[in-house]
Design a protein that fits this description.
This protein has three helices and 42 strands. The protein has 661 residues and is mostly beta strands.
């Protein structure tokens, strides 16, 4: 159903479409990243065949980095996260690629006004299957339509390649190898240019020891890097590079000692290598000096065990433990500061040096999860749960959405691991012979060691990043309602979420306090969230899909006056996030016409006509202020101001006429 939903610029996008589910939000139009139950964007883990993807979005957030054609399954965990998963606080999105067509060679793809994609799959003899897809964009023509001369001469685009091969050695052993690579670029004419790259690969071996015991062993690599070139000032042309590499090994076992128990246990280890930033001149005339921040290394290892136990036909209990050991180590150095003053350049006292392999910081932590499902009737159930999670890696950014220029930071002696305790309670009911599902779930989340920033904080190329970061706490709570119709000519769902997220920064010194030490709404706090999705199958060939979205505007800090200091006008601001941008409202429509549906036909095609933002509403992406003739004036910037009409052609070609459609 998610593949039927119209998204911006005509691209089918399973990941972006899942923002229409309850409890999942984004901060605005075409924003990269998403928020789950009061969590920031970096508190969500995106896995592609067990490989973490740090920036899972293309083209400023318009598209996700995955071609939906090649995705076989997506699981989103918001609560009751299994003990096999860790690394993040709020949510885990587990994306699995298709295994490839076992029956015969097959080609499929599509063309839209902005992107083109193709997928090839098939078998090699009887024991090997393969699938590979590629996608690219040809979007520069859109920039040519804009009024700004610089944007007309700018370029932007992306491409991605992903695939997997499976080898069935014998009935007890199977090996799979999957890979992913993507690259984005944007060249803002005579101002700046940047590109960022995601790369991942997974080698997995599945082995059946006996009918009730099997294991999966994995070796995984995941890399993320970007480069920014600034060329606006001829005398200060500079570039900056950043890179984060991850190497993972996993061993996961599943054991069924009886019909009433399912036990999962295993271990995994992640090695982080962070090149925190390097700045360099782009030519010989540039006055920019070369600067390279020291690299960081850390190892996060975990062992876990969980059991799903059927206590009776109506009661099941799931419990799990996960023990983490996080260690950061040299080579490298760390600054020490005076104990009776806030962290700053003025309070810097010494530098501590660490040799290769020497431990810099060490954090052992125990995570635990427990949940229960109680059947109150044939179609009525109650679920209750609690989970504690830790996170040892932070996204350092002063925006609510993921940006290509954001930096990740590993926990150390100044930046302690984040912690989340979440309580959840839900009631689920099916109606009309399970064709209609209704659910209502509430949650409360307590957050520790979240980070915020001092006013005017410099985040890029900062050797003393700890001096501009602030430790805080948070609380999030909400209730999620969903009504879904699964069968019939009309399907879809209605989802409503009421959710709040507040942060509190109350340090020992005045410059470490925000909003007088009181709670304030987080930048992504959006209390009301309503989503309606309707898919009408009008005939075998024709179906119509629509979705409607309403959300409260996100918080913002407004200037409420100005003053002069040193002959310069300066703004005086309200309390942190005291005001809100206008509410977000959007309606989309799509109509799909399928060609000949005969199963034995060797080719199949469809046309999709979509209208994004039917109402033509100028939803605000950002609001900024200027001082004009003694008055503070606000300006609103919107990504889309008019409806966007697209047409997409999709096709499938089978290797033989008897293949299934």
């Amino acid at each position: 159903m998610l593949k039927q939903i119209p998204m911006s610029l005509g691209e089918v996008d399973v990941i972006k479409s899942s923002l229409l589910l309850p409890g999942v939000q984004s901060v605005g139009e075409a924003a990269a990243g998403y928020n789950v139950r009061g969590g920031s964007t970096d508190q969500n883990l995106m896995l592609l065949n067990d490989a973490p993807i740090l920036n899972p979005f293309h083209f400023f957030g318009f598209f996700s980095t995955f071609n939906s054609d090649v995705i076989g399954d997506v699981t989103l965990y918001k609560s009751g996260i299994p003990a096999a998963f860790g690394w993040r606080l709020s949510a885990v999105r587990d994306v699995r690629l298709k295994e490839g067509n076992k029956e015969g060679f097959k080609v499929s793809g599509g063309i839209s006004p902005v992107t083109g994609r193709i997928m090839i799959e098939g078998p090699v003899k009887k024991r090997v299957t393969y699938i590979i897809s590629a996608r690219t964009t040809y979007s520069d023509w859109i920039l040519k339509q804009l009024d700004d001369i610089r944007l007309q001469n700018s370029t932007a685009g992306f491409y991605d390649i992903q695939g997997m091969t499976n080898i069935k050695i014998n009935p007890k052993n199977k090996i799979s190898l999957s890979g992913y690579y993507s690259k984005d670029h944007f060249d803002f004419y005579e101002v700046s240019a940047f590109n960022y790259v995601n790369g991942a690969a997974s080698l997995q071996w599945h082995h059946d020891f006996k009918p009730n015991l099997y294991a999966d062993f994995s070796a995984i690599m995941s890399d993320y890097s970007y480069q920014i070139n600034s060329v606006e000032n001829p005398l200060a042309m500079k570039g900056m590079r950043y890179r984060l590499d991850q190497r993972l090994v996993k061993a996961a076992f599943t054991y069924f000692p009886s019909d009433r128990h399912k036990i999962n246990f295993g271990l995994n280890s992640t090695f982080y290598k962070l090149a925190a930033g390097e700045q360099f001149p782009l030519n010989n005339t540039s006055i920019v000096l070369h600067q390279k921040l020291q690299e960081e290394q850390a190892l996060e290892s975990s062992v876990y065990i969980s059991d799903v136990f059927s206590l009776s036909p109506t009661i099941s209990i799931s419990g799990g433990l996960r023990f983490n050991i996080y260690t950061s180590f040299g080579p490298g150095s760390e600054y020490s500061y005076a104990g009776d003053a806030p962290l700053s350049e003025e309070s810097l006292q010494d530098t501590v040096h660490y040799s290769g392999g020497e431990v810099k910081s060490f954090y052992p932590d125990l995570e635990f999860r427990i949940s229960s499902r109680i059947l109150l009737g044939p179609a009525l159930s109650l679920k209750v749960g609690f989970q504690r999670m830790f996170q040892y890696i932070y996204l350092v950014s002063n925006t609510a959405a993921i940006s290509p220029t954001d930096i990740w930071k590993l926990s150390d002696n100044y930046i302690e691991p984040q912690r989340s305790d979440q309580y959840s309670l839900g009631i689920y009911r099916n109606f009309s012979r399970n064709t209609i599902e209704a659910s209502i779930e509430g949650y409360y989340k307590d957050l520790k060691n979240i980070i915020d920033y001092k006013s005017g904080a410099k985040l890029l190329m900062n050797e003393q990043i700890e001096t501009v970061l602030l430790n805080g706490s948070g609380k999030a709570y909400g209730i999620e309602f969903m009504l879904k119709k699964n069968k019939g000519s009309i399907t879809g769902w209605l989802a409503y979420t009421y959710a709040r997220i507040f942060h509190k920064v109350d340090g020992e010194y005045e410059e470490e306090i925000i909003n007088d030490g009181n709670y304030f709404p987080a930048l992504y706090d959006k209390p009301h969230d309503l989503k309606v999705v309707i898919n009408a199958k009008l005939s075998r060939r024709f179906n119509l899909t629509s979705n409607f979205v309403y959300t409260t505007g996100r918080p913002i800090t407004y200037p409420v006056g100005y003053f002069q200091y040193g002959g310069v006008n300066r703004f005086f601001y309200s309390d942190r996030n005291e005001y809100r941008v206008p509410d977000y409202i959007r309606l989309d429509l799509a109509a799909t016409y399928n060609g000949n549906l005969l199963a034995r036909k060797w080719n199949h095609s469809s046309l999709t006509f979509a209208v994004y933002n039917v109402l033509g509403r100028r939803n605000p992406y950002s609001i900024y202020f200027r001082l004009d003739e003694g008055l503070v004036k606000g300006y609103k910037m919107s990504i889309f101001g008019n409806p966007i009409f697209t047409i997409t052609y999709n096709f499938k070609i089978l290797g033989n006429a008897s293949g299934d459609y």
